[in-house]
Amino acid sequence: MWRGNPYPAVFLIAGMVLYGLFISVSMTTVADYRALLSDTVFLESIVLSLYVALSSTLLSLGIGVGLAQFFSRRGGIAEQILALPLFIPHLGAAYLAILYFSNVPMIGPHETNHFSIILTYVYKETPFIFFYLIPVFRRLDHRYEELGQLLGLSRIHRFWHGKGVFILFPALEASFIVFAFVLFAYEVPALLGVTYPKMIGVYVFDLYTQGDLSQQPTAFAISVVLTTLLFMMLAVFTWWIRPITERISKGRIE
After folding, report:
1. Residue 38 lies in a domain
2. What is the pLDDT of residues 110-163, one digit of tens each?
3. 31, 122, 147, 242: least buried by Cβ within 10 Å?
């Protein structure tokens, strides 16, 4: 009865998120949210998390799109190799980063540039974007690019009109998933990050578990802010960005 129907899973996950949001709101006051505006640790954690999430997402997207385009007419062992990181949990990828990057200057774990965290996420999320986009590339009609070549378009314009307009929304969709995941993640920055400033997921976890009950409302307030931010991003993506990309793919740019 429910086979192939996504709504039960959607309702279950949405119910869990909304229940957690309700509990978090009930544990906070307006003063807790005002205090966040002057909390330099929170603000620095947000800035750091945005830097890592944006860097990881853009690098993963660029590499993933390039690989998907290259292997769209090929297959075999290359895809099997690219699938290997998907079977390694993020915690395992973080331990691999400690093992291989510990003696590398400027990249090793616990460096203030956070390159080890970014590279770990690129290693994990590039295959996700690749497998997200490879079916899209394989469904494209390559005659569009051939027509662009006949019309004398440059390589960039041929790519955009032949492929770019069709992969724009799937690429943004995959990027949104990666960005949201990295922004609120805990395992990788907890193992590879520095003690200060911490990424926001680590900071919230420490506030909630350090034993000082007076800090727990701050943790709940941050959780509410982050969840609300994610919902706002999802709303913008769904009701603003998606219609624009659909019009572009259909050649109706207003």
Report:
1. yes
2. 888 888 899 999 999 999 999 999 888 888 777 766 666 667 666 777 777 677
3. 31
Domain that holds residue 49: 31-249
**Residue 211 located in a structural domain:** yes
Query: Cα(60)–Cα(243) distance, rounded to whole angstroms?
Result: 24
Name the domain count of the chain.
1
- What is the domain-level CATH number for residue 67? 1.10.3720.10
Q: How far apart are CA 128 and CA 177, in angstroms?
A: 10
Candidates 11, 63, 34; CA nearest to 225 is 34
At 146, list the tokens: 């051939």
Give start and end residues of each alpha helix (H) in the chain. 7-26, 30-37, 40-71, 77-83, 90-101, 115-139, 143-150, 155-159, 165-183, 187-192, 200-209, 216-236, 242-249
Task: Reduce the DSSP state of residue 215 to 3 states and report it.
Answer: helix
Q: What is the pTM of this model?
A: 0.84
